[in-house]
Amino acid sequence: MPTLTVNGRARTVAAEPDTPLLYVLRDELGLNGAKFGCGLGQCGACTVEVEGRAVLSCLTPIGVLEGRPVTTVEGLGSPEAPGPLQAAFIAENAAQCGYCIAGMVMRAHALLRENPHPGEDEIRAALRLNLCRCGTHMRILAAVRRAAGRPSPAAGGGS
Amino acid sequence: MRRRRIAVWLGAAVLAGVAGFGIAAWRSAIAPGGPAADEVAAEPVRRGAVLAALGYCASCHTAEGGRPYAGGRGVATPFGTIYSTNITPDPETGLGRYTLAAFARAMREGVDREGRHLYPAFPYTHYAGLTDDDIAALYAFTMTREPVRQAATPNALPAPLSWRPLIAGWKLLFAQAPAIPADPRRSPDWNRGAYLAEALSHCGACHSPRNLLGAEIRSKAYAGGEADGWWVPPLDRSSPSPLAWSEADLARYLAEWDPQHGGAAGPMRPVVDAHRTVPAGEIRAIAAYVATLYGPGAAGSRTGPVDRAVSGDDPALARGAATYAGACATCHESGGGAAGGVPYTTPSLGHRTTLRAPDPRNLILVLRDGIAPRDHVPGPIMPAYGTMLTPSQTTDLAAYLRARFSPDGPWPDLDGTVRRLMGGTTRSGARAEATR
Question: Angle B295-B301-B305 (CA atoms, 0-180°, nearest 5)?
């Protein structure tokens, strides 16, 4: 039986090696933060971290995760004690329906690990492939800027 | 005494050679000037816009994220990196002081206004075949772009290649106007396509092999080449494509995507993107010409798509099969975009020339980087697997794809190629973890 390391804990799961990680997280491990959006790697709602880098869990078969730590949004904090990035999302009211937010948080988290002080272009480039159907991208960007300790671009400055 | 006389003669011969070469290499400056009003009238500007798209000027003369036509994109060659120049009409750093005569000389002879020889990364050996009218239209278009002040990035070339008069010697050996086939028995489309492909679109610059001095080998035109580290498929009968390429297939592929052959990736992607603004008739003309390069009878020699059972006894292939099932099959076994499956997928990966290539570079590069979507237009998208798969997992997946979708046997040095292209075993994620 495959063993995964998720949020620092070793977990033995029953699924076959070709099962996408997203199904294992949600159905076997009860970690429902990562969402099923398109199932085709095109929306980013299922984004988690593997070895600190953002991956799309809907297209990641668990067979490739032997010995490689997985972090999900649950690994960054809890409702009682949110992590700094989660707190920034809350402070900026970044969620509307919230479906994309776990993926957004994980994509941003992976960015900030590699580059703690990204520029505006770097933030936008990193989040480019994560979609929000409510259209709260501006608040999501503000949350990432807040977590990165960057001021918001001057109001009325255009894009 | 005799030896000294020989030395004197030798010295004189060398001096004469250097002087002769100097004279041959020396080109005069053309006096600064600019376009006359009628040279930048609306009609030639409009025509020039289409021609510039078909010459893919912007794909080399625009840096990643840079201003259009302002240059600065590095073109990696086996000799070093050559940076494209600013071709906006800025007088200080661009073409602002070029007259039509200076522009025409640069395009056809590879000599700038000041008289300096230009490196043949700029495909003037093709543009030498352009008509006067088309040169004038390209001039009209170029001189009416937004001027951008941006000095050229110095080339990263070792001495003596950095010494431009040497290019004159290269030109003596290799620069000749392209042979543009003209055949009255063929359709006007075909004849138009021959002109576009050979002179303007410079297809052979990537699709032909080059010699040790970087010149296209004319006797092996369209036998395949290299661009930006990608394998460039042959367009002649040696093409390993599993399917024949009809004129209609090529026209669809060049305009957007073909449901049987798939779409472009890598350095061919900007070519297809540029075609968005080109009238369909011009694309059809190029397709009519290129379809005949494959040669008579080539269609019958194609194997058709291959999809073979792969034994699960080999543990590496079994691992590759599991990765394929979890990571690839959702899209690539959906039946193909034309049959209601995931858009922009072929019926199976057995349709793709990539898996029939002589080496695995293109597969690994597309797995590593994916295919980024374009803004505001529909088109293919593929996630980048470079963060998800380790090099050895990529090797297993590539070996499985090759075994299943090609009859040609395993790729030589697959694992070495994967490690070279995926940066060995040090993963940036692991580095980030270590520095936390």
Answer: 120
